């Protein structure tokens, strides 16, 4: 067979170096071409990751056994010889940017799997890559570019292991050096609340259409990065794309849980998802609590998943034994019924409106408060005894004004009785407030959470103190501006001073949660929002003349009328029979049970993206019953693939 | 317990001679309690005889005191009293059986610790507990409370001091030193008895509290020091202390068992008859239902419910299966006219039998295939978080203190009920919180059209369970029709209880299926039998999709891609095997194998081509 010249650009020689020309025959297979190429360059290095990229056709030549003829390559082909794994800047949900080597030759689905394996995130199918928003060129970038954490040195694991071997709670490659450990900590521990200015500066989608535009940026899972125009060192975002979290186990999912929380937190702070004011306050309280607990117990979080099976078994055994021992002694301590006694002032607005606060000797025992005329008379019958079980407790505190009120709403057969207790100082307030809160839940002062409850109340008071005193000048690590916890809308509506008591109010219900529980609670409340899980796309329904919005949720599709903003129609995947994509006219047609057919073309996103969203959710729903650890990648591509799947 | 079911409830027809008769009944009651308590007395004495040889020993003052050996026994005199007044022959025998079983429980607990020598001292506690009862019986003054006919309240009939004095005497006399090795652990320092007569609660409540110290200073110090130390690092002494503590813990748990409160309740049946039974404070509604069903020999169905009716407020609520019955009943006032009904209610689990009418936010009732229902339920309740049905719409709200009703647009969210303030849009951030659901229950209002001039009789009420009288803290909402009302009530239940509701239902179904298996009926027929749509307006059964708008067309109208791949695919599909998962460049069919393992149950029409 006749030999001809094939010129190949070898990236390792430098960008300006002329292409290397080798003499080949059409029946030479790709492996042979590479061999010749490597010999010709005379560079001794590991070429195993390199492969040929055919520029005109935008495809990799990965099958080394195929001949040039089979690939259809002739002398005019422009080939590039380069590594399949290249560095990429990756923005994580928590705002951190990593630089790591990712695969440019496999479908994005596999690239994401590789990234997740490296970062120790399970269930990579829920995540995908997003093209970032174009950053507006600011005036000569005054602030330094955000720090980038380099992970490019991490060896590429070719293994198909679903779970990397862990060392000390993290993947082995993070345990190599203190710097790497620090990076892992950043991935697995929540970030402190952002400064209010940072939140205000971020792009916030103002409308459903704005939100829809973001979804046009998802990369195609069935094609590789290079085919989608992503170059070495480009920046992409890694985000949870499918809002159907499966099998979340805080023990193994430190990074996954943290990143999902961060994504949810930002969605709320930037009003990507709508919520009510009450819900916002609760989210704020949870964020405050999470950041506080994360700072105080970061070790537990990162170490928990670290344990090997044997280790964890041993440890849990030990904990159990200790736990039993201490529970016995706890129980014994329970036996001494602790009580609080002090002079407090009481005010019952209903009965004695004119009299105002009156001082009595108060005694807190079990779940009841009783009061006496004076300390001396406290042996006899109390003037009144109030059982706090089931009551509502609300703070009314102003540290600057030294106002420490506990507002109690006590249920009685006749309705709710309102009672105010006035404390003299912080210390007293923290104790009695803690007692009231426990009692309202039916717990006594003997409960183990009493001390921590006092602590959390005091720390929150401290926060109010720093807020009210000289602005944020002395912003120590302890104090958090409450504006950091809510969306900018509330920055305008409330001053931090006004916001603090409201968040404090919500905080009392979550103050006892552990870090993991608090994270899970945050996610649960987020998932319970009516608009949760909706990804919007602007579409044009067949036969309609105006643009409308299609919302894609984990279990349904909704149609939103743009002029009114209302949901006009819901279709559930449950009833779906099939869907088709007409790639020529880029139209999607979906058939539901009962002869319901809809068809639409996509305006703000490619129809492949919509197709992938729907197929992806169907795929996510198949996971629950299979129970297998391995990812059924084939099924995913079948459901989401499109052209390339065949 | 079984005796209850054997008892026929007799209802006398004459209403005359009320006073005299009920007095007689009272005496009967006294006698019965007297007899029972006498039994206990004997038992106690025999125990005392064996123990009173050692002189009582005074111990240093206590540091750790508590009411561990608090034995409290509650029973509702009101309900018994009412029964007496209605001249029903209350199955007091059955009641006696219940009481005796308590007594037995106590004695087994007493026996157990004795068997392991180191715990012998616990016997003391129990002995003391027993001694109380004869004392009370001795005073012989158990009377029905002042609930009706001006009877004196129970509490007023005996002097607290008397009892305390007697108790003290009795207990000190009966005290004994247990195993000398551990004798330092146990000291009885003070005996105080408290007769708690909470004025809001049942007057018939008798509670006695004993205060004990049971750990000496030394042991407790050791325990405090070793808390948190791994076990292998402990010294012998410390380990001994730990073992001690462990033993005590076990023993204490047993004591706790014995301290369980019991409540005698009266359950009204739909045929105007009633049953009296004893429930213990740990029992859930489900457990009480089970025992009622067992006793009453009525067919098992998941619809059997315990319903609380608050006659004063004209409202009722079906207790959820997981709720604690005693806790709920203790919210009643002492002179309450409230009733506990045992009756079948289809609305209890209609939500799960026809989820499509509640979960999809549809305006009309419709049918759904069984497997689709299951899929829908799994989708809503199977995940990590439960999605609250999207309930929203105009409801009437009763204005505080007035008999006027105002229209408002309400929305239900997981975090509570909201309304749209005047002049605002429906956007989440502008919603005003009407109330949060943590502290309130949802009740069904009855006949409010005449009581409160409500626009319709389809009313629901939200209130704290403890509120029993008219109050500004009770919120009344009125719906236009019964279907809206049921949707709201059920959606609020979902928001409030979440997955627990579904668990309750599954548990109830499991039991009813088991019951039917036993009676050799096919469970499937029962299932479908009870699955008929429970909402009254089920006749409006038209397809909901017909109004879906321009973009929808029949399948004949929609175009397929004409590319070559298309025909390849459809050929392949026709040839293909049924179970295989298939998809192609332009079409994705939901194949049957996907359906099997997912929530997406459906029929693929193309399969019929084969």
Q: Helicity range of the residues of chain A?
A: 25-40%
Number of alpha- plus pi-helical segments of chain B = 19
Largest sheet of chain B: 12 strands, mixed
Question: Radius of gyration of chain B, Cα only, in angstroms?
Answer: 32 Å
Q: CATH class of the domain at 262-386 and 500-518 in chain B, anyone?
A: Alpha Beta
Q: What gross morphology of chain B would you assign?
A: globular
Helical region count of chain A? Answer: 17
The beta-strand count of chain A equals: 26
Task: Output the strand order for the largest sheet of chain A.
Answer: 16-15-14-13-19-18-17
User: What's the quaternary structure here?
Assistant: heterodimer
Task: Label the CATH architecture of the domain at 262-386 and 500-518 in chain B.
Answer: Roll
Poorly predicted tracts of residues of chain A: 299-314, 316-329, 468-478
Q: Quickly name the level 1 CATH class of the largest domain in chain A.
A: Alpha Beta
Taken from the alpha-carbon principal axes, the silhouette of chain A is elongated
Give the structural class of chain B.
alpha+beta
Uncertain runs of chain B: 1-27, 46-84, 86-90, 109-216, 520-610
Terminal Cα separation of chain B, in Å? 63 Å
User: What topology, given as strand order, has the largest sheet of chain B?
Assistant: 6-5-9-7-8-14-15-16-10-11-12-13
CATH superfamily of the largest domain in chain A: Phosphatidylinositol 3-kinase Catalytic Subunit, Chain A, domain 1
**What is the arithmetic mean of pLDDT of chain A?**
83
User: How does CATH name the architecture of the largest domain in chain A?
Assistant: Roll
Q: What does the secondary structure layout of this molecule look like, with pairings?
A:
The complex is a heterodimer of chains A (646) and B (610).
Chain A: E1 3-10, E2 20-25, H1 30-41, E3 50-54, E4 59-61, H2 68-71, E5 79-83, E6 85-91, E7 97-103, H3 108-119, E8 127-130, E9 148-150, E10 166-167, E11 170-171, H4 178-188, H5 196-201, H6 208-214, E12 235-240, H7 254-269, H8 277-296, H9 298-303, H10 309-335, E13 339-347, E14 358-365, E15 368-372, E16 384-387, E17 392-398, E18 403-412, E19 415-423, H11 426-440, H12 450-468, H13 488-493, H14 496-507, H15 515-527, E20 535-541, E21 548-552, E22 556-560, E23 567-572, E24 576-582, E25 587-592, E26 596-602, H16 607-626, H17 633-640
Parallel strand pairs in A: 1-5, 6-12, 7-9
Antiparallel strand pairs in A: 1-2, 3-4, 3-5, 6-7, 8-12, 10-11, 13-14, 13-19, 14-15, 15-16, 17-18, 18-19, 20-21, 20-26, 21-22, 22-23, 24-25, 25-26
Helix pairs in contact in A: 7-15, 8-14, 8-15, 11-12, 12-14, 16-17
Chain B: H1 3-6, H2 18-51, E1 71-73, H3 77-85, H4 92-115, H5 122-139, H6 160-174, E2 187-190, E3 206-208, E4 211-213, H7 217-226, H8 236-258, E5 262-269, E6 274-280, H9 285-296, E7 304-310, E8 315-318, H10 325-329, E9 339-344, H11 350-353, H12 356-359, H13 370-381, E10 392-398, E11 405-413, E12 416-419, E13 432-435, E14 441-445, H14 448-451, E15 459-463, E16 475-478, H15 482-497, H16 499-518, H17 523-529, E17 552-553, H18 564-575, E18 587-589, H19 592-596
Parallel strand pairs in B: 5-9
Antiparallel strand pairs in B: 1-3, 2-4, 5-6, 7-8, 7-9, 8-14, 10-11, 10-16, 11-12, 12-13, 14-15, 15-16
Helix pairs in contact in B: 2-4, 2-5, 4-5, 4-8, 5-6, 7-8
């Amino acid at each position: 067979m006749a030999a001809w010249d094939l010129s190949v650009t070898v990236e390792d020689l430098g960008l300006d170096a002329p292409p290397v020309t080798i003499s080949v025959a059409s029946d030479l297979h790709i492996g042979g071409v590479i061999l010749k190429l490597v010999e010709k360059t005379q560079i001794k290095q590991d070429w195993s990751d390199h492969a040929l990229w055919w520029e005109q056709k935008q495809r990799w030549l990965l099958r080394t056994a195929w001949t040039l003829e089979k690939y259809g390559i002739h002398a005019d082909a422009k080939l590039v010889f380069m590594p399949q794994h290249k560095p990429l800047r990756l923005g994580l949900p928590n705002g951190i940017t990593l630089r790591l080597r990712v695969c440019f030759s496999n479908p994005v689905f596999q690239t994401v799997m590789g990234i997740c394996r490296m970062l120790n995130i399970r269930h990579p199918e829920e995540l995908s890559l997003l093209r970032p928003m174009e950053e507006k060129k600011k005036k000569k970038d005054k602030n330094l570019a955000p720090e980038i954490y380099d992970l490019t040195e991490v060896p590429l694991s070719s293994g198909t292991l679903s779970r990397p071997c862990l060392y000390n709670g993290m993947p082995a490659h993070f345990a190599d050096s203190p710097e790497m450990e620090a990076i892992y900590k950043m991935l697995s521990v929540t970030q402190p609340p952002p400064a209010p200015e940072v939140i205000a500066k971020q792009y916030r989608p103002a409308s459903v259409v704005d939100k829809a535009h973001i979804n046009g940026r998802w990369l195609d899972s069935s094609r590789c990065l290079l085919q989608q125009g992503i170059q070495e060192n480009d920046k992409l975002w890694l985000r949870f794309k499918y809002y159907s979290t499966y099998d979340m186990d805080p023990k193994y999912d430190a990074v996954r849980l943290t990143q999902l929380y961060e994504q949810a937190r930002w969605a709320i702070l930037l009003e990507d998802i709508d919520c009510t004011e009450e819900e916002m306050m609760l989210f704020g309280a949870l964020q405050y609590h999470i950041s506080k607990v994360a700072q105080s117990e970061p070790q537990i979080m990162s170490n928990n998943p670290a344990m090997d099976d044997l280790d964890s078994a041993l440890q849990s055994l030990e904990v159990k034994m200790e736990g039993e021992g201490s529970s016995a002694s706890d129980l014994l301590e329970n036996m001494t019924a602790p009580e609080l006694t002090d002079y407090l002032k009481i005010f019952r607005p209903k009965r004695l409106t004119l009299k105002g606060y009156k001082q009595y000797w108060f005694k807190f025992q079990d779940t009841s408060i009783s009061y006496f005329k004076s300390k001396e008379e406290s042996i006899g019958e109390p003037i009144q005894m109030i059982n706090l079980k089931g009551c509502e407790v609300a703070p009314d505190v102003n540290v600057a004004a030294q106002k420490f009120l506990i507002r109690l709403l006590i249920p009685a057969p006749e309705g709710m009785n309102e009672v105010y207790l006035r404390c003299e100082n912080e210390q007293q307030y923290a104790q009695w407030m803690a007692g009231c809160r426990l009692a309202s839940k039916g717990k006594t002062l003997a409960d183990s959470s009493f001390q921590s409850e006092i602590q959390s109340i005091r720390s929150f008071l401290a926060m109010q103190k720093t807020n009210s005193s000289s602005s944020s000048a002395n912003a120590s690590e302890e104090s958090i501006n409450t504006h950091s916890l809510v969306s900018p809308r509330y920055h305008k509506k409330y001053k931090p001073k006004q916001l603090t008591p409201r968040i404090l109010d919500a905080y009392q219900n979550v103050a006892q949660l552990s870090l993991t529980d608090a994270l899970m609670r945050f996610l649960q409340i987020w998932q319970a929002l009516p608009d949760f899980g909706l990804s919007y796309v602007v579409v044009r329904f067949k036969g309609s003349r105006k643009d409308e919005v299609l919302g894609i949720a984990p279990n349904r599709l909704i149609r939103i009328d743009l002029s009114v903003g209302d949901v006009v129609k819901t279709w559930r995947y449950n009833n779906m029979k099939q869907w088709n994509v007409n790639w020529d006219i880029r139209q999607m047609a979906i058939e539901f049970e009962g002869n319901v057919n809809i068809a639409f073309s996509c305006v703000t996103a490619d129809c492949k993206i919509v197709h992938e969203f729907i197929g992806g959710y169907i795929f996510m729903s198949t996971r629950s019953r299979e129970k297998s650890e391995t990812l059924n990648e084939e099924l995913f591509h079948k459901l989401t693939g499109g052209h390339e799947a065949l | 317990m079984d005796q209850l079911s054997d008892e026929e409830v007799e209802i006398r027809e004459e209403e005359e001679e009320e006073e005299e008769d009920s007095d007689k009944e009272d005496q009967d009651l006294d006698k019965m309690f007297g007899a029972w308590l006498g039994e206990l007395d004997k038992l106690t004495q025999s125990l005392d005889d064996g123990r009173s040889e050692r002189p009582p020993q005074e111990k240093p003052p206590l540091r750790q005191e508590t009411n561990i050996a608090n034995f409290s026994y509650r029973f509702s005199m009101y309900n018994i009293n009412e029964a007496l007044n209605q001249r029903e022959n209350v199955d007091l025998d059955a009641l006696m059986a219940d009481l005796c079983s308590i007594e037995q429980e106590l004695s087994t607990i007493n026996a157990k610790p004795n068997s392991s020598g180191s715990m012998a001292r616990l016997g003391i506690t129990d002995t003391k507990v027993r001694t109380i009862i004869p004392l009370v019986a001795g005073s012989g003054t158990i009377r029905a409370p002042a609930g009706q006919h001006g009877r004196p309240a129970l509490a007023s009939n005996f002097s607290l001091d008397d009892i305390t004095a007697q108790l003290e005497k009795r207990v000190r006399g009966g005290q004994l030193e247990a195993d000398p090795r551990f004798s330092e652990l146990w000291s009885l320092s003070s005996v105080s008895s408290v007769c708690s007569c909470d004025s809001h609660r049942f007057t018939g409540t008798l509670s006695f509290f004993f205060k004990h110290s049971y750990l000496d200073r030394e042991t407790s110090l050791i325990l405090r020091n070793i808390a948190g130390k791994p076990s292998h690092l402990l010294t012998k002494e410390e380990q001994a202390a730990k073992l001690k503590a462990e033993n005590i813990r076990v023993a204490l748990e047993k004591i706790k068992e014995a301290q369980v409160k019991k409540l005698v309740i009266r359950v009204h049946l739909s045929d105007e008859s009633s049953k009296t039974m004893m429930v213990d404070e740990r029992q859930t509604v489900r457990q009480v239902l089970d025992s009622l069903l067992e006793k009453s020999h009525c067919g098992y169905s998941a619809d059997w419910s315990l319903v609380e009716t608050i006659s004063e407020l004209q409202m009722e609520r079906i207790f959820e299966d997981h709720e604690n019955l005693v806790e709920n009943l203790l919210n009643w006032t002492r002179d309450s006219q409230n009733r506990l009904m045992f009756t079948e209610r289809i609305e209890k689990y209609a939500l799960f039998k026809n989820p499509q009418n509640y979960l999809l936010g549809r305006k009309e009732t419709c049918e759904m295939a069984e497997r689709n229902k299951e899929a829908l339920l799994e989708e809503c309740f199977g995940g990590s978080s439960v999605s609250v049905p999207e309930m929203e719409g105009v409801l009437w709200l009763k204005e505080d203190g007035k008999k006027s009703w105002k229209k408002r647009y309400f929305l239900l969210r997981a975090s509570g009920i909201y309304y749209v303030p005047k002049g605002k849009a429906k956007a989440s951030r502008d919603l005003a919180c009407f109330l949060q659901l943590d502290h309130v229950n949802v009740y069904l209002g009855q006949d409010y059209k005449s009581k409160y001039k409500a626009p319709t009789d389809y009313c629901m009420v939200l209130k704290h369970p403890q509120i029993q009288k008219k109050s500004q803290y009770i919120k009344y909402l009125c719906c236009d029709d019964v279907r809206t009302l049921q949707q709201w009530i059920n959606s609020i239940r979902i928001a409030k209880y979440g997955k627990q509701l579904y668990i309750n239902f599954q548990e109830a179904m499991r039991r009813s299926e088991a019951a039917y298996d036993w009676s050799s009926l096919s469970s499937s027929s029962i299932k479908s039998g009870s699955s008929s749509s429970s909402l009254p307006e089920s006749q409006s059964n038209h397809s909901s999709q017909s109004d879906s708008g321009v973009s929808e067309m029949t399948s004949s109208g929609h175009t397929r891609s004409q590319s070559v791949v298309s025909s390849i695919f459809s050929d392949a599909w026709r040839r293909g095997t049924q179970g295989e998962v298939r998809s192609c460049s332009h079409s994705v069919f939901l194949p049957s194998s996907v359906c099997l393992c997912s929530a997406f149950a459906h029929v693929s029409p193309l399969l019929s081509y084969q």
